[in-house]
Structure formats: structure tokens, C-alpha cells
Amino acid sequence: MSAVIPARPDLAAAVERSPGVWKAAWQRLRHDRVGTVSLAIVCAFMLLILAATLGLVAGDWQRETGVPYAPPTISGADRAQAEQAIEAPKGPLVDLSDVDPLAPRYAEWKDRAAKFQSTEIVKATTLAFGGDRLGRDVLVKAIKGAQVSIFVGLSAALLATLIGTVLGAAGGYIGGKVGDFLEWVYNVFTSIPDILLIFAFAAVFGRGIETVVLILGLAGWTGMYRQVRAEYIKHRTREYVRAAEAIGVSHAARMFIHILPNVSHVILVRLSLLVVGFIKAEVILSFLGLGVPVDQVSWGTMLAEANVELVLGKWWQLAAATAFMATFVTAFSLLTDALRDALDPKLR
Amino acid sequence: MTAYVVRRLWQMIPTLAGVILLVFFLFKYFGGDPAEILGGLLATPEQIEAIRDQLGLNLPVWEQLWIFVRQIVSFDWGRSWATSEAVSSIFATRLPATLTVMIPILLLEVALAIPLALGVAHVRGTLTDRGIMVLTTVALSISFLVYVIVGQWLFGFTLGWFPVQGWSDSFLVNLTRYAVLPILLAVAVGLAPQLRLYRSFFLDEIGQDYVRTARAKGLTERRILLKHVLRNALIPILTNVAVVLPGVFVGSFLIEVFFSIPGLGREVLLAVNRSDYPVIQAVTIYLAALTVLINLVADVLYKVVDPRVVLK
């Protein structure tokens, strides 16, 4: 007698549909309301800086569209400035051509001047978010500044991640002499306080956007190294790695094809922590004149200008830079928290 | 214990040697030519050559390294390139101002953050707790610069409660007059991250088995928190203080720049802007040595705080 085993299509389907780490994390993230909203804000900023990079928005941030220190529209035009305008003389015109030695040449100069075309530029007395010292729109500046600041933060974080991951993988996987040497390098870098390391690098490498990325990346890889190394030490004796070894997979492939995907969630969370830290650091470095050069704009250079403006009562540039930065950094931090929760296997 | 300390001191040598090598080669191969920095734009080639001779730049690299090491060991860094002030005297005259500001900041921060974090950990999971966490996240996302700019403008310039900036020769006047606003601002800003960190330390401890045991034997929540949790959470807190302690000696350079405090942090920043290498090198190397020493002291203190810790 043979029992007929009923086919269980639903079971087979369930087994097949078992989601991977990333898919499960994505689903968890989608159910996290705070995480979704922050992800949307971060994506919006990314689109904005993409548009700014392509020159679609804020390409003309240097254009002086308003009067100097044009106030935001809501607070109305600056009355003091209007009063200071020089009034046209009202008295009767006196003919001075008898005593004026330049009088005979006036007609000649007028003819010459007429040969050049000149256009009257009407400068707005108020701008939506106000203007800076030269009358540049601070909203446009803040968008351009977002492009520079976020670019620096992201690139420096990627550089630090690259250094930290490669060294951490080598130190954790290979161990031995190489591991000891890397631990020594780590000890050397961590024994110098971060800010002094940054200053020392800044003193020798000079200024510029690429330099800031380099400095921050070189000074900030140690945390990533430590964590990746610990993960590699944990993973290198796991069964899946031993199995890969048994079928003849090379060391490099084991390190980067087999283990790396299994620790990538740790790297991703640490990476986003670095982005926030580096954006803040860029702002401070640019403020101190060690970062972004003066012909560029970042949130840091905006704050450096705002410092002087505030005493004059011009608060809008400070407000614009702070609002942009706070929105992005808060959203990014909350996203990082949500990401950590979503990727934590213990919570799954 | 003594054997442990001696061994740790011995282990410091390779680390510090690494720091010396890093700083030496960084400035040697990536920094500008010292002779040209010192000579200025109008120096003739002969003058440049003379400066190179004087600084020993024409010697082989290993001899230059040896001079560098001798300078470090003898605490004699010569003079600042920018001001011709002896580097050792820069340290001696700038450090007091930095410490006048930084030590009160550190003490106040720790003294405020621990009870506040314990309080927040006590009401964990409630609306108050979540509200405070959201508030600190937002507070943390605003740059330190903004707090200092606005604080100086509001309390110093507009309200006139404190002097906008300044410094005097008297320690007491400095502490009670000029340092007050910088200290309060720095504490206000530093509190948010410390609070979050300490709260997480306390929450880790509250989840432990011994807390459940303490509850089971009928201890009050207050006694559990103050006697058991606090004592156990002191270890990570101590580690954190040890991490930030070396920073006390460079000071918050931003605070010093804003409030014109003649401290070490501002001096280092000036040195970076003037390419004044001796000052930067000296500060970097001594601060690294200090950091390693503080880490050792912290490790020994673990033993004092927690008898279970075995120093190996």
C-alpha cells in the first residue's frame, strides 16, 4: 500500500520566496515610518545635488540678483537702506561751463560713451530667502552649498570606508605579521587626537575640495578598520568560508566575494555614520579657512560669512545654511538609525 | 600591577615611534620646503641655501630623523618660524588659558550628563524619553558653529550678559568673567551627544540579569539605578572620558577662535595657517604621547572601579 503524498505547492512557494537579507531589510525599513520619511528627504537632497551638479539649478549662484543684503520677502524691503539713497539735487541748474575747464570735452565724451551699450540691471529689493553681502540669493547659495558639502561628506566617507575595509579585511583575514603591522598603524593613528591629525594633514596638503576629501578620509578610517577587522576574524573560520576553501577558492576571492557581502551591512551603517560626521567636519574646516576655497560655496563658508552678518542684523544667510544642514543631517541620522534596526539580524 | 604598568609603558615605545615616523615623513615629503617658507618670497638662492644648511636639510634623511628625535626627547624644538617665540614657551603660556576653559567644561558635562542620562534611562520607552531622543537628534544635526555664533551674538552682543570676547592676566577674572559664556555654550552643545551615549550605557546595564535579581529581591528602583546600574555603567563612561580627555589640552579650538582666548588650540590653528611646522609637529607628538598615557591611566582605573577586571 502506498500512501500518496499530497503535493504542497504552497510550501514549495513559501520556501522559494524566503527573502534575502537585503530584501528583508528593505521590507523592515518600509514599515518604519520615520525611516521612510527620512529616506524620502535624503533622496530629495540627492536629486537636488544631482541637478546642481548637472547645472540645472543653482548654476548661477554667483549672480548678484538683489541689492546687497536684500532681506527676505516676508520681512519687507530694508527701509534704512532706502533712506540712505542719495537724493537727486533739487536746486536750479547753474551753468558752470564758463569756469569748468572740462566743459569743452563733455560732448566728445558723451559721443564716446554712446558707442558702448549699457543695460540697466534692476536689482530686487527683496529676495525669497534674502541676499548676501553681494546680493546673491541665499537660497541658491544654500543649494549649491549642499552640493559641495554633501559631495565632500560622501566622498570622504567612501574613501575612509575603502581604506578601512581593505585594511580591516587584510588584518582580520590574514592576521599574523600583517595583522600585527596593521594593528601598529591603527595604534599610531588613534593615538593622535583626530583634530590634530586633520590639522597636520591640512598643514601639508594645502586647501581645496579634493584635499578636504583626502584629509578627512585619511584621518577617519580607523573606526571602520576596527569593526571590519573584528567581523573578518569572526567570519574567517565559519563553515561557508571553510567550504569555499575546500573547493579551492583563492584567498582574495574568499575575502572579497564570500565574506565581504556577509559583513556589508555593518559597513553600510558605519559608512552612513561617517557621512554625517564628515559633513559636520567639512563645515567647521571651511569655516576655519582650511576647507573649501573662497570661490566655492559650502555650508561652512556660508556660516563663516553669517558670523559677521549677524552683528549687522542680517540673519537670513545663517538661517538658510542652518535649516538646510539641519534638515539633511537629521534625516540622514534617522535613516542611519532605521537602517541599523532594519539590518540587525537579532531584531528580525 | 607594577609589572602591568611597566609592560604597558614598554609597549608604548613602538606606537610613539610610529607617531614620530608618521609626523616626520608627512612633513618631510608632503609639506612645503621649510627653507622657502622661512625665506619668504624675496629670498635669494644663497639665503635659501643658508637656511637649508642651518636647519640641517642638506644632511642625509636618517640624520635629520635623529635630530628630530633629539628635539622630541630634549623638549627643545627651537623657535616658532612665524614669531621666533620658543616653542616650549608657546606651550607654557598658552596651556593655562586652554585649561581654564576646558577643565570646567569637562567636569560640568560629566556631572550633568550622568544624572540626566540616568533619569532618561529611568523613564525609558515613555513619551518623555522619545521626545528627548528626538530633541537631541535635531540638536546634534545643527553645527557647533551655529550654536557659538548665535550664542555669542545673543548673550554677549544683544543681551550683554557676558563680555563678547576678551581675556585678562588674572585667573580668577578669566574664570568668572571671560570664560563663563564659552564654558556654558560648550557644555550646552556637548550635553546632547553625552546624554545619548550614557543613556545607551545605562540601558545596556538595565537589561542585565543582575538587575532582574535585584528587582526580585525587592530593591527599590531608585536603589537599583543608583547602586547597581550606575556603578556598572561607570566603565564605559570612564572609557568615553578617557577618549575625550586628550582633547582638553588642545581645547575646543573653535571656542578659542570665537572668544579670542589665547589658548593652545588657537595657536595650533594659527600655526597651520602660517605653515609653522615646529609648533604643529610638537603639539601632535606630545598630544599623542599624552593620549597613550591617559589610556593607560584609564585601564588602571578600570581595576579600581571594577574589582572583576584583571589586568593582563
Ends apart, CA distance between termini of chain B: 9 Å
The CATH topology annotation of the largest domain in chain A reads as: MetI-like fold
Instruction: Supply the number of structural domains of chain A.
Output: 2
Reading off the top of the CATH hierarchy, the class of the domain at 98-276 and 300-305 in chain B is best stated as: Mainly Alpha
Q: Which structural class is indicated by helix and strand composition of chain B?
A: mainly alpha
Count every helix of chain B, treating DSSP H or I runs of 4 or more residues as helices: 14
Structural class of chain A: mainly alpha
What is the number of beta strands of chain B?
A: 0
Shape of chain B: globular
Beta content of chain B:
under 5%
The average pLDDT of chain B is 84
Architecture of the largest domain in chain A, according to CATH? Orthogonal Bundle
Low-confidence stretches of chain B: none
Note the main sheet of chain A: none
CATH fold naming of the domain at 98-276 and 300-305 in chain B: MetI-like fold
CATH architectural type of the domain at 98-276 and 300-305 in chain B: Orthogonal Bundle
Please characterize this protein's 3D structure.
- The complex is a heterodimer of chains A (348) and B (312).
- Chain A has 348 residues and is mostly helical.
- Chain A has 2 domains: 23-58 and 133-347, MetI-like fold (Orthogonal Bundle); 79-88 and 96-123, no CATH class.
- Chain A contains 14 helices and no strands.
- In chain A, α8 (194-205) packs antiparallel against α9 (209-219).
- The radius of gyration of chain A is 30 Å and the shape is elongated.
- The two termini of chain A are 44 Å apart.
- The model of chain A has no long low-confidence stretch (mean pLDDT 82).
- Chain B is mainly alpha-helical and 312 residues long.
- Chain B has a domain at 98-276 and 300-305: MetI-like fold (Orthogonal Bundle), CATH 1.10.3720.
- Chain B has helices at 2-29, 34-39, 45-55, 61-74, 87-122, 127-141, 144-158, 171-178, 180-206, 209-216, 221-250, 253-258, 264-273, 277-305.
- In chain B, α11 (221-250) packs antiparallel against α14 and α13 runs antiparallel to α14 (277-305).
- Chain B is globular and about 85 Å long.
- The N and C termini of chain B lie close together (9 Å).
- Classes of the chains: A mainly alpha (348), B mainly alpha (312).
